[in-house]
Amino acid sequence: MGRVPLAWCLALCSWRCAAPKDTQTEVDSPFVGNPGNITGARGLTGTLRCELQVQGEPPEVVWLRDGQILELADNTQTQVPLGEDWQDEWKVVSQLRISALQLSDAGEYQCMVHLEGRTFLSRPGFVGLEGLPYFLEEPEDKAVPADTPFNLSCQAQGPPEPVTLLWLRDAVPLSPVSGQGSQRSLHAPGLNKTSSFSCEAHNAKGVTTSRTATITVLPQRPSHLHVVSRQPTELEVAWTPGLSGIYPLTHCNLQAVLSDDGVGIWLGESDPPEEPLTLQVSVPPHQLRLEKLLPHTPYHIRVSCTSSQGPSPWTHWLPVETTEGVPLGPPENVSAMRNGSQVLVRWQEPRVPLQGTLLGYRLAYRGQDTPEVLMDIGLTREVTLELRGDRPVANLTVSVAAYTSAGDGPWSLPVPLEPWHPVSEPPARAFSWPWWYVLLGALVAAACVLILALFLVHRRKKETRYGEVFEPTVERGELVVRYRARQSYSRRTTEATLNSLGISEELKEKLRDVMVDRHKVALGKTLGEGEFGAVMEGQLNQDDSILKVAVKTMKIAICTRSELEDFLSEAVCMKEFDHPNVMRLIGVCFQGSDREGFPEPVVILPFMKHGDLHSFLLYSRLGDQPVFLPTQMLVKFMADIASGMEYLSTKRFIHRDLAARNCMLNENMSVCVADFGLSKKIYNGDYYRQGRIAKMPVKWIAIESLADRVYTSKSDVWSFGVTMWEIATRGQTPYPGVENSEIYDYLRQGNRLKQPVDCLDGLYALMSRCWELNPRDRPSFAELREDLENTLKALPPAQEPDEILYVNMDEGGGHLEARGAAGGADPPTQPDPKDSCSCLTAADVHSAGRYVLCPSTAPGPTLSADRGCPAPPGQEDGA
Fold it and tell me: What is the pLDDT of residues 749-795, one digit of tens each?
């Protein structure tokens, strides 16, 4: 049956108004059969039947449940004539079929017909639901460490009520917990063996048993991982195993990685393995010797122990380092030459590994009948020995050895002295006057060219400012000053500006639709100012309208033509962006600058009425009267950002600074990805300067970008996961308690952001996939958008809010308040004609620059400054 005609609705309304309150049926009712009663369990299929006899054309029978018309009821109507003529009496039978009985089907059912301007109702029949308890939540499988508390949940409902819950462990009942349809949690203090848990729900109709959850008992995390002894190529480590219940430990696994690159550990192989080295050791003892390591090298190690039930959690990464060793070989190319009483000894650094930090060299020399003499040379590789005495030293030999803090390396073979062979130097070249004449002439010519260039630059500067210089001429015996204007950096036309910048013709052609005349932009109040730029409210005078815009100025000067062309090329790229969740570029213009170099660029962007997403989330949580944002709204924000980033990734555009502060809210409460490319904001609190590297948003940046400064679309996915966490926590700062300088080590140890309170498990699982160590394992933005949209569809529609939310975005500081029934004020009995929202007057909204959160039919509330509230004449929405 399709929708009920409007006439039936009007008839039902008129019957309710005209019928006496204590009368349910007419005295002369045509109904000869009325609906019966049905009582059964969920899933039951039943049929209700109405029968009536009428004269003339049979009417259409409509079914009611609790006085409301069933618009999409599964009913059939049969008409049987009781006479030979169609105007004779008719018998009409209407049957309503109820399949798969649910709690929502219970109620009072009646048939209604409309005859000769009158409405008739049958006597009511009742449909009730009774049966075994129905589980809304059942216990889930878990893996928990031994002797560690955990919780299980179970929820069931009737009817009939009450419902009593009984927990069973290994089929043995535990103490009963009574409750009527409410969720009950079982708090277990800990287990020492793997067990099964189930839940029984009892009511007057019987017992229903939930699924059986298996709780697997794993060993606890090992503790006290430490180094027992260190050698240049060996490390001996030990640890204390955790409790494992009744299951003895079978073995432990130890993983080790090089600390500098984190890709593996080299144990004498030709190439380091791609994955961390994993060594398995039988226990006890809980000790292991790592051999064939690199001397004087940092590593990270961790341990996990395994029983028959499975492995324990890994310990945190422990940084260790091998000690220094002695050099593996002697210095190379040792030579000793004698010149009279002096000996010049030279050598080169050993080619083999030093196994530590080279501290210097030791030199030893001795003659045939003289004792050996040792000398500490230091880090120099050349030394002169002074031989004293009346008799020459016979058969003098020299040896050299390198040493580290671990000791001396091998000595070089003894080198005998060689006689001095002076090296003849080529005679000095005679002074060539012709050569110097040529050089002097070239210098003079270069100086002349430089002076001429400075003169032309100075003259061009005057022409730009005043036109061509005044030219005196003589006419009729009098001096006449003529003035002829030259083309300059145009302050009126885009064409002249492009021609004056000296950029390529190809780039100028692409900029035709990007450049905007500076005089068409009127600036207003400053909306925000940072270290490298400011954002001001503005108006762009178009041909037939005035557009409200945001004007972004830059404090960083463009000093070279290459920087200018890079800036303008990126503007051309942004101008082509066309997506509802990506901030589009309206245009670029230039304004004069007191600084030398090129004019200052000005970026023109759409005006975003509700500001940045981070401020909106922060005000909702920390305002004077915090207002809870529903999960549907937060998931919608995430899906919008994922959609915009999917578009940018298809354009092969890498954002590099994705965060909630760089996402804007437009008038429809849709999120637009912004602040990419042209003029990046720098937030001192969110960026960390690592050595001489430029400032980076370390708490949002991917781990591989922190290590190698390499940015890809998958590094944007990492930042998107952090942005999801910001939205889920309603504006909290990521990694609370962790300093910027500690972030890299914190992530290298396997730590990630914790699951926020009230965050759906599916959403946190999606965030965690964004933080995979290997970028290839992270999802694409297309997968993220699809998963978030499916999550949003699976959520129930948001309840209409009891409070009215508005954000005060005046210059005096933003705050958030709530008004309405929940705020303690009595609701108005009649709406204010000046305010169709019935929340606060339009004058309050526009004069104070406040935005009202009014209920809407869409899932979740929407933020609007004037949704349904007319604005007073001559006033605009504030920013």
Answer: 999 999 998 899 999 999 999 999 999 999 999 999 999 999 999 88
Element (H, E) at 538: strand 533-541
- The Cα 38–Cα 31 span in angstroms is 20
Report d(CA 85, CA 132) in Å as an integer: 53
- Non-local CB neighbours of 672 within 8 Å, separated by 6+ positions: 580, 581, 582, 583, 608, 640, 644, 663, 664, 665, 666
Q: Are 151 and 185 in contact (CB under 8 A)?
A: yes
For the segment 225-261, what is each residue's pLDDT rounded down to a tens digit?
Answer: 999 998 888 999 999 999 999 999 999 999 998 876 4
List b or e across 562-592, with b for residues whose CB sees 16 or more CB atoms inside 10 angstroms. eebbebbebbebbbebebebbbebbbbbbee
Asked whether 664 and 612 are in contact (CB, 8 A), the reply is: yes
Alpha-carbon distances, residue 8 vs 69, 112, 113 (angstroms): 9, 9, 9
For residues 675 and 657, give the distance between their C-alpha atoms in angstroms, rounded to a whole number: 8
Q: Which amino acid is at 590?
A: F
29-38, 161-170, 501-510: range with lowest mean pLDDT: 501-510
Contact yes or no for 356/405 (Cβ under 8 A):
yes
pLDDT digits over 5-38, tens only?
Answer: 444 454 454 445 444 443 344 467 889 999 988 8
User: Could you tell me the domains of the chain?
Assistant: 6-129 (2.60.40.10), 134-217 (2.60.40.10), 223-321 (2.60.40.10), 332-419 (2.60.40.10), 494-606 (3.30.200.20), 613-794 (1.10.510.10), 803-864 (no CATH)
Alpha-carbon distance values, 302 to 226, 227, 239, 299 (Å): 10, 12, 10, 10
pLDDT tens, position by position, 682-691: 333 444 333 4
Q: How far apart are CA 189 and CA 287, in angstroms?
A: 31
Burial 462-499 (b: 16+ CB within 10 A, else e): eeeeeeeeeeeeeeeeeeeeeeeeeebebeeebeebbe
Distance in angstroms (rounded) separating the CA atoms of residues 429 and 420: 27
- Count CB atoms within 10 A of the CB of residue 84: 7
What are the structure tokens assigned to 299, written together? 């590593």
pLDDT value at 868 more than 50? no
DSSP class of 603: E
Element spanning 633, H or E: helix 631-650
Judge if pTM exceeds 0.90: no
The predicted structure's pLDDT at residue 45: 85
Contacts of 319 (CB under 8 A, 6+ apart): 259, 298, 299, 300
Question: Beta strands 332-339 and 418-419: pairing type?
Answer: parallel
Residue type, 508: K
Tell me phi and psi for residue 47, to 5 degrees: -135, 135
* Cα 769 from Cα 747, distance rounded (Å): 14
Average pLDDT for 47-62: 89
Q: In what order do the strands lie in the sheet with 850-854?
A: 815-820, 803-808, 850-854, 862-864
CA distance 462 to 481: 17
For residue 5, cis peptide bond before it (omega within 30 degrees of 0): no
| Average per-residue pLDDT for the chain | 76
What is the token pair recorded at 612?
A: 């940045």
Residue type (1 letter), 788: L
Q: Which of 220-229, 312-321, 489-498, 649-658 bottoms out in mean pLDDT, i.e. has the lowest?
A: 489-498
Task: Give catalytic residue positions.
Answer: 657
How far CA 870 is from CA of 114, 169, 556, 846, 874, in Å, comes to 44, 64, 43, 10, 12
Q: What is the 3-state secondary structure (H, E, C) of 796-835?
A: CCCCCCCEEEEEECCCCCCEEEEEEHHHCCCCCCCCCCCC
Report the Cα 117 to chain-centroid distance in Å: 65
C-alpha to C-alpha distance for 495 and 517, rounded to whole angstroms: 10
Position 379 scores a pLDDT of 85
Residue 199, CB-side half-sphere exposure with 13 Å CA sphere: 26
CA distance 298 to 289: 16
